């Protein structure tokens, strides 16, 4: 019976059983995409990463990232969690690791103390959206709206941001049926505190098999792009901001971020946090399906 080794880590937290859990699978070189998807469904976490040899000369390793229902080109907490785990296993030294994934080759700085800082891909910014269907998806009303118009933004993976009153974030109740009806696979609901440069954020992703995510690094990156475009962060220079997420799921997470802007346009963003090891073992390789 063939098995592959795996580790479970909690990402964007400095203590166990908080943050966002992640499965990192090693020795997966011979697995097909269907086998990887089957294992991701078995772990049933928001994401599972398969660490593979790189296919380009300047990468440290290649990562394939799966939710329980689909493969993603990139995601934040899997990237940070995988880089730190690769370092802790002794497969790379602390410093800058270069992860090959669907969004390109991304640098991730890791420390011997288990912290990782990811630089996202090329920033993207989409058109504004009608808030009415988004409020329905979040179980909120027009009275809860607060801030700039909803729009998509990202740094390798786009997210749709809906800004609401501070008290509305915790009251949001996702409606997967409404999300499917309106064709919105992921929705990020947030409240921005301009005084402290912090966001209280929740990410609902029923369309990608994640009803709610306790810590979403790709959304934290995209948030910086959205904040600069909305005029909520400086138009030039490097600005720090913090994202708090996961409290409603009893998995509090802290994501420390920066965004670099020039002329009112975000040019890059980073997200950082700690990674805590939780478990390790072996899992049976599922049959090849096709």
What is the CATH superfamily classification of the largest domain? Diaminopimelate Epimerase, Chain A, domain 1
Mean pLDDT over the residues: 96
Sheet with the most strands, sense and barrel status = 8 strands, mixed, barrel
SSE sequence, one letter per element = EEHEEEHEEEEHEEHHEEEHEEE
Low-confidence stretches: none
CATH architecture group name of the largest domain:
Roll
The CATH topology name of the largest domain reads Diaminopimelate Epimerase, Chain A, domain 1
- Beta-strand share of residues: 35-45%
Oligomer: single chain
CATH class of the largest domain: Alpha Beta
Question: What percentage of residues falls in helices of 4 or more residues?
Answer: 10-25%
Euclidean distance between termini CA atoms: 19 Å
Total discrete domains: 2
Report the total helices. 6
**What value does the Rg take, in angstroms?**
18 Å
Structural class: alpha+beta
Q: Can you walk me through this structure?
A:
This protein is globular. 20% of the residues lie in helices and 41% in strands. The chain contains 6 helices and 17 strands. Strands 1-2-3-4-6-7-8-17 form an 8-stranded mixed β-barrel. It folds into 2 domains: 128 residues, Diaminopimelate Epimerase, Chain A, domain 1 (Roll), CATH 3.10.310.10; 148 residues, Diaminopimelate Epimerase, Chain A, domain 1, CATH 3.10.310.
């Amino acid at each position: 019976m063939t098995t592959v080794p795996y580790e479970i880590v909690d990402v964007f937290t400095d203590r166990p059983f908080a943050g966002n859990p992640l499965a990192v699978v090693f020795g997966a070189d011979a697995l097909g995409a269907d086998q990887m998807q089957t294992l991701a469904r078995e772990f049933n976490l928001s994401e599972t990463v398969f660490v593979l040899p790189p296919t380009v000369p300047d990468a440290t390793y290649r990562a394939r990232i799966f939710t329980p229902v689909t493969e993603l080109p990139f995601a934040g907490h899997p990237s940070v969690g995988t880089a730190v785990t690769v370092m802790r296993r002794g497969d790379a030294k602390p410093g800058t690791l270069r992860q090959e994934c669907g969004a390109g080759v991304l640098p991730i700085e890791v420390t011997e103390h288990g912290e990782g800082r990811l630089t996202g891909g090329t920033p993207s910014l989409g058109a504004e959206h009608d808030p009415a269907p988004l409020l329905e998806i979040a179980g909120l009303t027009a009275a809860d709206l607060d801030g700039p118009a909803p729009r998509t933004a990202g740094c390798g993976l786009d997210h749709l941001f809906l800004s609401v009153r501070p008290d509305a974030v915790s009251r949001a109740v996702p409606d997967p049926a409404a999300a499917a009806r309106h064709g919105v696979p992921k929705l990020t609901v947030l409240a921005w505190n301009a005084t402290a440069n912090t966001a209280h954020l929740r990410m609902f992703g029923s369309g990608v098999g994640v009803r709610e995510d306790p810590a979403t690094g790709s959304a934290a990156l995209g948030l910086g792009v959205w904040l600069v475009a909305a005029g909520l962060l400086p138009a030039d220079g490097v600005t720090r901001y913090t994202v708090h997420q996961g409290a409603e799921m009893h998995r509090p997470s802290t994501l420390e971020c920066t965004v670099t802007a020039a002329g009112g346009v975000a040019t890059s963003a980073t997200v950082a946090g700690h990674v805590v090891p939780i478990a390790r073992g072996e899992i049976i390789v599922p049959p090849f399906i096709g």
